[in-house]
Amino acid sequence: MQIIEDSLDQLLKQVAIRTNAVANREEVEKSVREIIANVIKDGDQAVKMYEQKFDNVELESLKVTQREIDDAYEATDDTVIKALELAKANITSFHQMEVEDSFIDAKKKGVIRGEKIAPLAAVGLYVPGGTAAYPSSILMNVIPAKIAGVSRIVMVTPPQKDGLNKAVLAAAKIAGVDEIYTVGGAQAIASLAYGTETVPRVDKITGPGNVFVATAKKQVFGQVDIDMIAGPSEIGVIAGSQAVPSQVAADLLSQAEHDKLARPILVTDDRSLAEAVSKEMDRQVDLLPRKEIAKAAMENEGFIAVVDDIDDAFTLMNAVAPEHLEVQLPDAIEYLNQIKNAGSVFLGFSASEPLGDYLAGPNHILPTGGTARFFSPLGVQDFVKRTQFVSYTRDALKKEKDAITTLARVEGLEAHARAIESRFDD
Amino acid sequence: MQIIEDSLDQLLKQVAIRTNAVANREEVEKSVREIIANVIKDGDQAVKMYEQKFDNVELESLKVTQREIDDAYEATDDTVIKALELAKANITSFHQMEVEDSFIDAKKKGVIRGEKIAPLAAVGLYVPGGTAAYPSSILMNVIPAKIAGVSRIVMVTPPQKDGLNKAVLAAAKIAGVDEIYTVGGAQAIASLAYGTETVPRVDKITGPGNVFVATAKKQVFGQVDIDMIAGPSEIGVIAGSQAVPSQVAADLLSQAEHDKLARPILVTDDRSLAEAVSKEMDRQVDLLPRKEIAKAAMENEGFIAVVDDIDDAFTLMNAVAPEHLEVQLPDAIEYLNQIKNAGSVFLGFSASEPLGDYLAGPNHILPTGGTARFFSPLGVQDFVKRTQFVSYTRDALKKEKDAITTLARVEGLEAHARAIESRFDD
């Protein structure tokens, strides 16, 4: 990968250019708008028409039977089932710590105030087809929803000529998906947002997908809630002289193999480490089945920045706001305070990023493209809603009556003032 | 208002038609796209050009001086300042209960897992101009951000020929806004999302606005985070025979006066209450300064539904998912469990909705248009982000190594497996 050695200011400028590149795709927007309108109008019939058109599949029924799911589970290798079960246990124990409590406050005489936290009623999970159908992502989407208490979890995934991926169906069974439909693309998102005769309308749609899926999610936002729009995978590694080049290189490649636009970034204060990692990546990448993808990512988006000291490395990484951040430094946990923007953080020499993709328990559905500035990993919090409530006695209201009517009248909202005063007309 | 008496099924169908009406405004989308592109390209110059074009104001400087803010505060009536201070105290004590804690878990040998909650660095608040500039909304937006720990709170508001609303500036000072710019419309949203020479780029934009503002917020979503897209105000009242018709009518009118598309809804099991409230509304509405608006809302969107029993009233109201819900029944708090979808709930005969608009402490920025199904009131949670972290020793990683590499290879991600194995090459 390209090694850049420059002042922090110059590096920050380069990073800013990279993260601001967001394409505006008017044509895609238009055809997605049309697909959504047709699914609203014609329901299942429109969905089947689009499946024929885009996936070249003639569907009789959209629903995957319990039998198909059970058969796929039986056909899945036992070591895979066991690995999925271990992952489920770790993901569950981590996400249980995210559960928020309702609260109630009765400190003031005659006044009750509170906030009730309740699960969404139904959520939809989009699972891409082909090689991007990841069993691990099903666990990451479904388990937090289950812990939140969502009672209807609906999965959609494009039909596949040779049948659905068996490990995906096994993971859906293990995670506790309630129903599965073979619908893909924008038509799947439209179905979940508005409902068809077969596919139920849900309250929130999560899961990654291609540009049509992402655009459709953005368009239905407001009709339903959505998770963030996922971009290409990113890994940032901050490493000092004690890091092992072959391990740093392997970790960078683990994300580079995802996508030609994936972004592997190393920031180090050690020029010789930079060179050793670069050399190791060139050596290792040729041994990978997905070497073409990984090489493209290294060339398109990857870089190694050499900075003056480790504080600069954190400043630069905070500007990148990477999806994954490894801190390969001694006593890595002590840097937690310096990490401002990152989705998921891997501390120390042994916390290799794929540990988080599969097993440690934190979520792997994470903010990308610099959005870790404001977005968070998918979690239990994404599958609940809050409802606030107040109760005032007439005496309690009387004490605050004048303040309310004063503010209402300053805002020119006379009926607001009168609603309060109507309690004291007699 | 129209009184409907029908089966629950028929009522649910009518409600479904109402809530699904979402207009698609392609022209607005296009001109907003252009405004955003120009603000990205030309910064302040584009902003000033649009302010001249749309607001007919030639701006030298975009920034409101501290002097202007202090003068407005001094010029604001003392009773208003005191009412704002009381509101601030109640809003603060309520929102402090929303604060979430970071967590760390060290139950397993060699494994540390946790989630760090941190404030967003900078947020932008849009305040509409004219009569829709509400001091109370500034408190509702800013106080949760302050409690979350946001260090830079930026307000934007369209320039006004006769100067900015003094009570709005006073509220900004009381709430603790850090800087104010006179920019409105889509150009204001673009400025906050991308930054100009004068207006800083923020991480999240909140606050209501017209269709241009709402469309711009939707378009910049992903570049920054946004709060929900606000629609016309709604009030649902569930009332039994013990409710006082004049009070129910006054409460319904308090939201009807907001907007010609506001939606006042009463659901009752008492036909005679329905008739009395309808009569009272007709009488009271004529006494209001904003009677034209309130009458239009009553006609366009308002209705009174008479149902067989109170359980049906909750079923119907849950389908509406109103922004505000009053429960005017004895022992109202006992119905909390039956309320599935509502933004803010007012329990009992004295909890009149404007109490929540101004003073009780819960937020008044609430989900509308049926989105209470999945959106929540604005809160402290909206101004933080979560970062997850893990640390594993080599021994701890060794125990889970095989499960990770098994899952990586099932997904065809060889480089993921090798990253883990690179720790055990020796």
From TrEMBL, chains A, B:
Binding of NAD(+), residues: Y126, Q187, N210
GO molecular function: histidinol dehydrogenase activity; NAD binding; zinc ion binding
Reaction(s) catalysed (UniProt annotation): L-histidinol + 2 NAD(+) + H2O = L-histidine + 2 NADH + 3 H(+)
Residues the record lists as binding substrate: S233, Q255, H258, H324, D357, E411, H416
Cofactor binding: number and manner: Binds 1 zinc ion per subunit.
Enzyme's top EC category: oxidoreductase
Enzyme Commission code(s) on record: 1.1.1.23
This protein's GO CC annotations: cytosol
Cofactor list: Zn(2+)
Family in the record: Belongs to the histidinol dehydrogenase family.
Function recorded in the entry: Catalyzes the sequential NAD-dependent oxidations of L-histidinol to L-histidinaldehyde and then to L-histidine.
NCBIfam families with a match to the protein in the record: hisD
HAMAP family: HisD
Designated name of the protein: Histidinol dehydrogenase
Species, as recorded: Lentilactobacillus buchneri subsp. silagei CD034
Taxonomic lineage of the native organism: Bacteria, Bacillati, Bacillota, Bacilli, Lactobacillales
Record gene name: hisD
